[in-house]
């Protein structure tokens, strides 16, 4: 019977080509608008490290006091606090980090130096964040302690400097000093870059280099991210890092809720110790947030993405309301046909099935048109959103299937009332009036 109902539905659609085309266009436009904005929202609100996001926590310790904006600790830690947390070793893995910038110099004097963004980190960062390696691996804990001149570089930098070959063991000139390459990472698309949200909310330059934290501090590498000074730091690098200026992020890997609770108590006790020592003059004010909580706190999802999704969803709803009216007009025009079928023994259930299948064929056609229009919408995303965000939204198989599914389900929902009205046609009245 499905094939028979489908044949009847297609025949009916061909009898009213203009009305059919109008319904398909309404559904296609509404679905395309919602899917285009959903693609942006999905790209910006997704979990950047789903396998471990509930185990990775950023620590915050308030060194600013009650005047801190919003009564929240600042986003970063001081160098002295981050080192104290590192030395306490209260987490399974942990790393202090901050973004840096270096100049890569070529052996070829005809080539100019070019800047590269990177991070000063501890070796625990690589297994903590599941950083994939193409060649080699992280440096050792001994290298951290020794302030070794070693470095891990990204694939793009390796391609540019070493032609893409295995460069482990070779040297790279950074700011006029040679560093030994110990590893080359594969392309790592953790978007947003949750541990560095100060560049375009984590959607900007991902960085292509990792240097031992202690080596970076010893080389007086200034931060390329955010920093705030509670009190004047005085002149010079040593005064800056030993001051109350905050510029270091601190991440800890805590495998379960109990570990997170213990670590939060540790932060509270540490802040209390600083108060007892006279450094802080306020009650402990600490925070411990996992990856998704941190992204929510920092409001990483652009407000225009949320607003666009709401507006597009409302537009889709309006399109469905129009579709309900069009289907109702189309189905009720066939009341005489329905009356004859009912008089010949067709049940209300059969009428319902016939018209739902007819509506589903309209929804399927609208979904196919929606795919085309969604592709067109993807090309125009850059006109509304920041280019760094716009390039993250793209068509893939899941979005294609979702577009068709939304069109099909939406049309079926819209068809429930018109189909119900059609199934309620009284055959006696239709036969008498006709």
From TrEMBL:
<feature type="transmembrane region" description="Helical">
    <location>
        <begin position="397"/>
        <end position="417"/>
    </location>
</feature>
<protein>
    <submittedName>
        <fullName>Putative ABC transport system permease protein</fullName>
    </submittedName>
</protein>
<dbReference type="GO" id="GO:0005886">
    <property type="term" value="C:plasma membrane"/>
</dbReference>
<feature type="domain" description="MacB-like periplasmic core">
    <location>
        <begin position="20"/>
        <end position="216"/>
    </location>
</feature>
<dbReference type="InterPro" id="IPR025857">
    <property type="entry name" value="MacB_PCD"/>
</dbReference>
<feature type="transmembrane region" description="Helical">
    <location>
        <begin position="21"/>
        <end position="41"/>
    </location>
</feature>
<keyword id="KW-1003">Cell membrane</keyword>
<dbReference type="GO" id="GO:0022857">
    <property type="term" value="F:transmembrane transporter activity"/>
</dbReference>
<keyword id="KW-0472">Membrane</keyword>
<feature type="transmembrane region" description="Helical">
    <location>
        <begin position="350"/>
        <end position="377"/>
    </location>
</feature>
<keyword id="KW-0812">Transmembrane</keyword>
<feature type="transmembrane region" description="Helical">
    <location>
        <begin position="307"/>
        <end position="329"/>
    </location>
</feature>
<keyword id="KW-1133">Transmembrane helix</keyword>
<feature type="domain" description="ABC3 transporter permease C-terminal">
    <location>
        <begin position="310"/>
        <end position="427"/>
    </location>
</feature>
<dbReference type="Pfam" id="PF12704">
    <property type="entry name" value="MacB_PCD"/>
</dbReference>
<dbReference type="InterPro" id="IPR050250">
    <property type="entry name" value="Macrolide_Exporter_MacB"/>
</dbReference>
<dbReference type="Pfam" id="PF02687">
    <property type="entry name" value="FtsX"/>
</dbReference>
<dbReference type="InterPro" id="IPR003838">
    <property type="entry name" value="ABC3_permease_C"/>
</dbReference>
């Amino acid at each position: 019977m499905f094939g028979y109902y489908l044949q009847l539905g297609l025949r009916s659609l061909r009898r009213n080509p203009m009305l059919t085309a109008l319904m398909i266009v309404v559904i296609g436009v509404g679905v395309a608008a919602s899917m285009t904005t959903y693609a942006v929202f999905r790209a910006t609100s997704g979990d950047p490290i789903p396998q471990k996001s509930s185990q990775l926590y950023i620590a915050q310790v308030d060194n600013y006091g009650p005047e801190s904006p919003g009564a929240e600790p600042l986003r970063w830690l001081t160098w002295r606090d981050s080192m104290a947390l590192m030395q306490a070793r209260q987490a399974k893995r942990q790393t202090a980090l901050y973004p840096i910038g270096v100049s890569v110099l070529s052996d070829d004097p005809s080539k100019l130096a070019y800047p590269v963004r990177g991070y000063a980190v501890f070796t625990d960062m690589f297994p903590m964040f599941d950083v994939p390696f193409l060649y080699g691996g992280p440096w050792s804990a001994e290298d951290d302690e020794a302030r070794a001149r070693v470095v891990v570089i990204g694939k793009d930098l390796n391609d540019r400097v070493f032609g893409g070959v295995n460069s482990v063991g070779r040297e790279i000139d950074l700011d006029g000093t040679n560093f030994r390459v110990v590893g080359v990472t594969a392309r790592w698309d953790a978007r947003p870059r949750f541990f560095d949200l100060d560049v375009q909310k984590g959607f900007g330059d991902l960085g292509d280099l990792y240097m031992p934290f202690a080596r970076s501090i010893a080389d007086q590498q200034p931060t390329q991210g955010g920093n705030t000074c509670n009190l004047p730091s005085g002149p010079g690098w040593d005064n800056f890092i030993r001051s109350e200026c905050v510029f270091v992020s601190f991440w800890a890997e805590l495998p379960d809720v109990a570990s997170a609770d213990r670590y939060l108590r540790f932060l509270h006790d540490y802040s209390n110790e600083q108060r007892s020592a006279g450094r802080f003059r306020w009650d402990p004010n600490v925070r411990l947030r996992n990856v998704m909580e941190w992204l929510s706190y920092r409001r990483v999802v652009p407000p225009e993405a949320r607003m666009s999704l709401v507006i597009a969803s409302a537009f889709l709803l309006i399109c469905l309301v129009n579709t309900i009216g069009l289907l109702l007009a189309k189905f009720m025009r066939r009341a005489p046909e329905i009356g004859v079928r009912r008089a010949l023994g067709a049940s209300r259930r059969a009428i319902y099935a016939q018209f739902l299948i007819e509506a589903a064929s309209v929804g399927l056609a609208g979904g196919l048109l929606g795919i085309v229009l969604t592709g067109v919408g993807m090309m125009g995303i850059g006109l509304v959103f920041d280019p760094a965000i716009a390039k993250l939204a793209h068509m893939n198989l899941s979005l294609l299937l979702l577009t068709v599914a939304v069109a099909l389900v939406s049309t079926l929902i819209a068809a429930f009332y018109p189909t119900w009205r059609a199934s309620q046609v009284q055959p006696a009245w239709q036969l008498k009036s006709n």
